[in-house]
Amino acid sequence: MIFDLDMIKGVYSRYKSRVEKARNIVGKPLTYAEKVLYAHLFAEDATENFKRGESYVDFAPDRVAMQDATAQMALLQFMQAGKKKVAVPSTVHADHLIQARVGADKDLQEALNKNNEVYNFLASVTNKYGIGFWKPGAGIIHQVILENYAFPGGMMIGTDSHTVNAGGLGMIAIGVGGADAVDVMAGMAWELKFPKLIGVKLSGKLSGWTSPKDIILELAGLLTVKGGTGCIIEYFGEGAESLSCTGKGTICNMGAEVGATTSIFAYDESMNRYLRGTNRTEIAELADEIKNELRADKEIYEDPAKYFDQIIELDLNKLEPHLNGPFSPDIATPISKIKEVAEKNGWPLKVEVGLIGSCTNSSYEDISRAASIAKQAADKGILPKAEYTITPGSELVRYTVERDGYLDVFNKIGGKVFANACGPCIGQWAREGSEKQEKNTIVHSFNRNFAKRADGNPNTYAFVSSPELVTALAIAGDLAFDPRKDKLKNEKGEEVMLDEPQGFELPPKGFDVEDPGYVAPAKDGSNINVVVSPTSERLQLLESFPAWDGKNITGARLLIKAYGKCTTDHISMAGPWLRFRGHLDNISNNTLIGAVNAFNMETNKVKNEINGEYMPVPDSARKYKAAGIPTIIVGDNNYGEGSSREHAAMQPRHLGVRAVLVKSFARIHETNLKKQGMLAITFSNPDDYNKILEDDTFNFLDLDQFAPSKTLTIELIHANGNKENIFVNHTYNQAQIDWFKAGSALNLIKQKEAVPKN
């Protein structure tokens, strides 16, 4: 089945002419990313040459995708917008709420029992508003998107930071907050600052133990977690052409870990093969008709440094298998150096668990290559030293790999197959013994490895690698094991080596599945009721945030001054808190409980100036709110790094926070704050972070003159009575200032919808 074929035909029918007009306006050759962007302008044809990193541009994405944890809040907001049906094709994927504990069948049934209220809500709200629903067990959103919806030259947004995975099929796919999704589903423009462009030229070809995962692991080490902020990474070169489509998807997926807006590969034969292999031959044929425009102009490839803002070259012939971590996905170490680095830093070398799968690495190719290593262990009599788990990315992949015998292979080495869901990758892992908080090492093929992310244990050292290397390390039980040269002892005491992994880009016998898990919406949902119980602990209808009164914010108090890395996991934890993603007040009880207080270096312990006592962050915020005292959050660099969850913006807003003042923001989080009517500001002088004291009072002196590019002034009143002014910057344009004035972007949508139409 091909979804939304008429929409795709429409995109292709106007794509070439829009690109040609853009080329004339810009007056130079275009990169592939630029072509897709200019082909999706909300105003249709290009009329100006947008400045990278400066121009705010309105786009018209082709579709919207949401996962169940973020979809709840997004759809609760959409229900307020007054629309009868979504304006663009949209889907919801139930993949985040399934906890990995025992195994696929039991875990899925447990999730159905526990989350029945949420699943019923999602099933009914999608049915009412014309949204496709992928039920629990159908698979992880990004794998399902790649298999069913992604297409070269298209543009989509999704309420998950790893939406960027679809770049592997030549699509501009960007992670956003739910409020952005509401805009697009309501038929409005979606705004984005026109990205800068990083060109990554890949030469050579992968071989042996290296994999597509190693390309992005190496790149993460070069760029760091914020090196791609505000940029699209565009891959090209002979090395890019040699990669499989799903391998490209893996690389794009982890572009989120360097802060990139998205990543993209040009259309090529591997994408054509994948489209045909997933029963979308007609799309492949349509793409072939305009294939010259589904890649950069030839001048770009001849002299890339002239057209990209930054060029990085990687020789795949020289690339080594990598392990990235612990605690950050940009700490990159080649396998040949891991023992030396681990011993120097005191990392535990014993591998306790190896986990493969996730939205990053759960393709047929990934599973087949990992299975080739597992089969060797079984055939050569090697007993695995660590636990081993497998998380298939979709029912299509799971059914096919089971048919082809790979799950039996994993079973022979004691592998445990979890449900087709996110599971351990997002903290949905009931790992036995994690509550003891013992120091230990795990290896996985996921994308993120922040402290406590997988199992809640701050002392779990998690390392990111390819599925095949994870499998080898789990068999060896040793982080320093280099399968290219190290030997293992089998049951007979014989020394044996593992051969290089082998796999298949696509299943030789084709994909197969009995029930992919898709539920189509009603053609007319006008008579369908979406019921949310007023006593529910899981779901809560939203109330509008208050509009700004037009006055300066005065008498504000410090809620917390966060020290160091403060990701969305620190601001709004996942794991057990996922069950409250549809209930704003309940989930607000986890607000910033993971952030480190700069004044005592403790988590979830801040001073409340009303009574002078130290208390949990949410409790302090509620106390200030009840007293009518506005609050401010202060943070460090790249504040809000991580997932797209808008709860990290909505929760502080709900608890009375008025402004977030930091050294720098992660892109998605900054946008989410703006959308929710929050003031997102940065220090003009980053050293002023040090001037903020625990008991300061904050007065904005010129917020009543809020305007684009205008620096704002904050008066700090210290407890000793001394006063000093600091200056802060912002990136609000006039439209975003209107969101702030209205109280939120959604408030503005409702206001416009309420205006009678002629």
TrEMBL record:
Signal peptide: none annotated. Pathway: Carbohydrate metabolism; tricarboxylic acid cycle; isocitrate from oxaloacetate: step 2/2. InterPro entries: Acnase/IPM_dHydase_lsu_aba_1/3 (IPR015931), Acoase/IPM_deHydtase_lsu_aba (IPR001030), Aconitase/3IPM_dehydase_swvl (IPR015928), Aconitase/IPM_isomerase (IPR050926), Aconitase_4Fe-4S_BS (IPR018136), Aconitase_4Fe-4S_dom (IPR036008), Aconitase_dom2 (IPR015932), Aconitase_mito-like (IPR006248). It catalyses: citrate = D-threo-isocitrate. Residues 34-477 form the Aconitase/3-isopropylmalate dehydratase large subunit alpha/beta/alpha domain. It is an enzyme of class 4 (lyase). Its EC number is 4.2.1.3. One of its GO terms (molecular function) is 4 iron, 4 sulfur cluster binding. GO terms for cellular component: cytosol. One of its GO terms (biological process) is tricarboxylic acid cycle. The keyword Lyase applies. Keywords: Iron, Iron-sulfur, Lyase, Metal-binding, Transit peptide, Tricarboxylic acid cycle. Residues 558-685 form the Aconitase A/isopropylmalate dehydratase small subunit swivel domain. It holds the Pfam family Aconitase_C. Its cofactor is [4Fe-4S] cluster. PANTHER family: ACONITATE HYDRATASE B, ACONITATE HYDRATASE, MITOCHONDRIAL. Belongs to the aconitase/IPM isomerase family. This is Aconitate hydratase A. It comes from Apibacter adventoris.
